[in-house]
């Protein structure tokens, strides 16, 4: 299974074909799109990739899940749970050997102040509670998307970040908050990029594409051994640099069958 998470920037209008080309090059089985706000763009990308799709609209943006395998069911939690400030879509994909894969796609609030981090932590607590059913039974699943958050182990040079982030860094006493990703890991999830590239996970960025000073896009796995993560990457090729303001992140999973 090859899973990609990609923030396509404000719906991707006028950029559907470049975005699809970036995705095609990574040979995905499943794609999570963040800021999938324009239906015709999602449809065009899905058609190019020969994938089925489902969209979950949130308050300010939408997310989507595309799959070349059957999407069995989906829940747009953002439409049901008004406590969520942005997007949270949960779907189950059935792979060719009959294994069900729950995949959760989120988009957390942006900003680098402590108040922004508090908003992310609040949303994440709701999301982790909704996924608790899988953790209690040990069911392997994925949590992916744009977390707009920094991991504790990331080494961030504020001068390589956007101006608003630099300003927040100064306001925060020359630091950036790190609680959100810490909470995900403490809940038992594995940062799939860090599994394969631990030394690079400290420094490789996914945002923004012109000066990638932070990695705010993640694919977390639960219930899988590290050995199942065969490859993981941040796609920084030339086309990806101009197709969106985020680089896509990806993971390849090989799971042995009993």
Give the helix/strand layout.
Elements: E1 2-7, H1 16-24, E2 30-34, H2 39-49, E3 52-57, E4 62-67, E5 71-76, H3 77-80, E6 87-94, E7 100-107, H4 114-130, H5 132-137, E8 141-146, H6 163-171, H7 179-186, E9 190-191, H8 192-196, E10 217-222, E11 229-234, H9 238-243, E12 249-253
Parallel strand pairs: 1-2, 7-8
Antiparallel strand pairs: 1-12, 2-4, 3-4, 5-6, 6-7, 8-10, 9-10, 11-12
Describe the structure.
By secondary structure, the protein is α+β, with helices and mostly antiparallel strands. It has one domain (2-253): 4-Layer Sandwich (Deoxyribonuclease I, Chain A). Helices cover 29% and strands 27% of the residues. It is built from nine helices and twelve strands. The chain has helices at residues 16-24, 39-49, 77-80, 114-130, 132-137, 163-171, 179-186, 192-196, 238-243, and strands spanning 2-7, 30-34, 52-57, 62-67, 71-76, 87-94, 100-107, 141-146, 190-191, 217-222, 229-234, 249-253. It has a six-stranded mixed beta sheet. Helix 1 packs parallel to helix 2 and helix 4 (114-130) packs parallel to helix 7. 46% of the residues are buried. The mean pLDDT is 94.
The portion of residues assigned to helices is 25-40%
| Overall pLDDT level | 94
How much strand content do the residues show? 25-35%
- Counting structural domains, the number is 1
**What's the SSE pattern?**
EHEHEEEHEEHHEHHEHEEHE
What is the number of strand segments? 12
Q: What is the CATH architecture term?
A: 4-Layer Sandwich
Q: List the strand order in the largest sheet.
A: 3-4-2-1-12-11
Low-confidence stretches: none
Q: Main β-sheet: number of strands, strand sense, barrel status?
A: 6 strands, mixed
The CATH superfamily title: Endonuclease/exonuclease/phosphatase
Q: How does the overall form come out from the CA principal axes?
A: globular
**Could you say which structural class the secondary elements and strand pairing correspond to?**
alpha+beta
What is the top-level CATH class?
Alpha Beta
Continuous helix count: 9
Distance between the termini: 17 Å
Which fold name is given in CATH as the topology? Deoxyribonuclease I, Chain A
Question: Radius of gyration over alpha carbons?
Answer: 17 Å
């Amino acid at each position: 299974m090859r899973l990609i998470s990609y923030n396509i920037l404000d719906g991707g209008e006028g950029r559907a074909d470049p975005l699809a080309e970036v995705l095609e090059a990574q040979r995905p089985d499943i794609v999570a799109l963040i800021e999938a706000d324009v239906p015709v763009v999602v449809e065009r990308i899905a058609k190019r990739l020969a994938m089925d799709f489902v969209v979950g609209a949130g308050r300010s943006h939408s997310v989507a899940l595309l799959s070349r395998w059957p999407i069995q069911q989906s829940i747009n939690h953002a439409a049901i749970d008004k406590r969520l400030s942005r997007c949270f879509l949960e779907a189950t994909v059935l792979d060719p050997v009959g294994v069900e894969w729950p995949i959760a796609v989120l988009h957390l609030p942006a900003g680098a102040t402590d108040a922004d981090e508090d908003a992310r932590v609040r949303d994440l607590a709701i999301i982790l509670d909704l996924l608790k059913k899988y953790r209690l039974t040990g069911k392997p699943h994925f949590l992916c998307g744009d977390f707009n958050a920094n991991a504790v182990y990331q080494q961030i040079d504020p001068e390589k970040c956007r101006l608003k982030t630099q300003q927040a860094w100064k306001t925060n006493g020359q630091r950036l908050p790190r609680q959100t990703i810490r909470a995900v890991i403490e809940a038992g999830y594995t940062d799939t990029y860090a599994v394969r590239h631990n030394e690079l996970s400290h420094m490789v960025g996914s945002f923004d594409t012109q000066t990638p000073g932070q990695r705010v896009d993640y694919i977390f796995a639960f219930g899988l051994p590290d050995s199942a993560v065969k490859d993981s990457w941040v796609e920084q090729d030339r086309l990806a640099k101009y197709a969106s303001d985020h680089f896509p992140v990806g993971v390849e999973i090989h799971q042995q069958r009993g």
